[in-house]
Specification:
It is a single chain. It is built from 25 helices and no strands. With 436 residues, it is mainly alpha-helical. It is elongated and about 115 Å long.
Length: 436
């Protein structure tokens, strides 16, 4: 009789705990479930529910203890394995978490949450096929799982399957319209599909939902850069700077925008601010070197390119930039050496061949220049500058037929209204060649 009374009292305390839990009064719920356990220490339900409250309160060790007791009292309790696995996942004990999710699925093959969480572990380990299999199963069991659609979309995005990613992000957002991370992810997908209008819409909506969403400002700013709307890009990066004043990448992005606007002194200041925060960034040194180059501060530019090369010896663009400075300083043979270093790192770097060809032209090594322009054209056949420069080399070297063919190919690749096109037409006329 007394035992039955204790069980009854325990159930009453569980009911009270449930009421407090429903109103998110975690502390009182924990107290009630504790009283339930005092009356009946074999109530796996009370242990489980108290463990869930401890989990919500981020008291993970206590939560694991309660889930252990619930499982000990009822080894077939699939949801207890799932909840304990979720705590293990939270504290980065991934092997324990995986074991618990496996057990939960073994006991209940229709437990969609367990497939989702198991998918997260496989995703973390970059086992994308297994992760995809689990998110697929989670969605089959629960078509309202917005997070499973979202994570599956992430896998498709990683694999550059952008249309599939777009579909999944959209399904996720239909279920959870205020998920700013899903909006940003879909915006990035649109960006990769060159759909700038829809990308801007998603980033803007994310900012409207959360005005402090820094990622949305960052990616919207980058989209404006692609659209050459530099004024709007500046506004976004400046807004981002207010949110993250110590983020070197924000200053770097501001520098890129000012550089694109040909505001080179402002670009130098931005890149300098970025380097104060991140003095080990080869990319930022390279960017500032480019700004110094256009300001004709050649010594400063070379210093920055050298710093970039020191930090990243395989940054072929930095060798290329240094070569450009040396060529401007009439140090042609030294420039050729830098271009050659760039090409040796990236043999497909057609810009390097063109610039080295220009250097050979400067010292009247016409045949070598022709060879470099030819290599550039072979790498990038739609490269109009290669045809133009090779045509000039042929013309200078008295190979008129070859020059005419290259000039005509150049005219085929560029708009007729450009100054270069008009000059080439005058050359062809002076060479007695018809313009097709």
């Amino acid at each position: 009789m007394a035992e039955n009374q204790n069980i009854h009292e325990s159930e009453l305390w569980i009911d009270r705990g449930d009421e407090f839990s429903a109103h998110d009064d975690i502390i009182r719920a924990i107290e009630c479930y504790g009283r339930a356990i005092e009356f009946n220490n074999r109530s796996y339900t009370a242990y489980f529910k108290r463990g869930t409250m401890y989990e919500k309160n981020k008291e993970y060790a206590k939560a694991i203890d309660d889930f252990n007791n619930a499982i000990s009292l009822n080894p077939e309790f699939s949801f207890a394995y799932f909840r304990r696995g979720s705590v293990y996942l939270e504290v980065h004990q991934y092997e324990n978490a995986l074991n618990d999710f496996n057990k939960a699925i073994e006991l209940n093959p229709n437990l969609s949450f367990a497939y989702h969480k198991r998918g997260l572990i496989y995703l973390k380990d970059n086992e994308l096929d297994l992760a995809l299999e689990n998110f697929n199963r989670a969605i089959e069991l629960d078509e309202s799982s917005s997070q499973s659609y979202f994570q599956r979309g992430n896998i498709y995005f990683t694999r550059n399957e952008f249309m599939k990613a777009l579909q999944d992000y959209t399904k996720s957002l239909r279920l959870e319209p205020s998920n700013t991370i899903a909006l940003i992810s879909r915006g990035l997908t649109y960006l990769n599909l060159n759909n700038y209008s829809d990308a801007l819409n998603d980033f803007t909506l994310a900012i409207k939902i959360n005005p402090n969403q820094s990622l949305a400002y960052n990616y919207r700013g980058m989209t404006f850069v692609k659209l050459k709307d530099y004024v709007s890009a500046l506004k976004d990066f400046q807004a981002l700077l207010e949110l993250e004043p110590n983020n070197s990448e924000v200053y770097n992005n501001l520098g890129v925008v000012h550089f694109s606007m040909k505001e080179f002194p402002s670009a130098v200041q931005d890149f300098s601010n970025a380097l104060e925060l991140d003095p080990n960034s080869a990319q930022i040194y390279f960017n500032r070197g480019n700004a110094y180059y256009y300001l004709r501060k050649f010594n400063e530019a070379i210093s920055d390119y050298d710093n970039a090369i020191y930090l990243d010896p395989r940054m072929y663009w930095a060798y290329y930039g240094k070569g450009n400075v040396l060529l401007m300083k009439n140090k042609t043979m030294e420039a050729i050496k830098e271009y050659t270093k760039a090409i040796s790192i990236n043999p497909k770097f057609y810009q390097g061949y063109i610039s080295r060809g220009n250097a050979f032209m400067k010292i009247r090594y016409y045949s070598k220049a022709e060879e470099d322009y030819t290599l550039a054209i072979e790498i990038e056949p739609k490269n109009s500058v290669g045809y133009l420069n090779r045509g000039i080399a042929f013309k200078t070297n008295k190979q008129i037929d070859h020059a005419a063919r290259d000039f005509k190919e150049f005219l085929r690749l560029v708009p007729d209204s450009t100054k270069a096109a008009q000059q080439v037409k005058r050359w062809l006329k002076s060479m007695n060649y018809d313009i097709d």
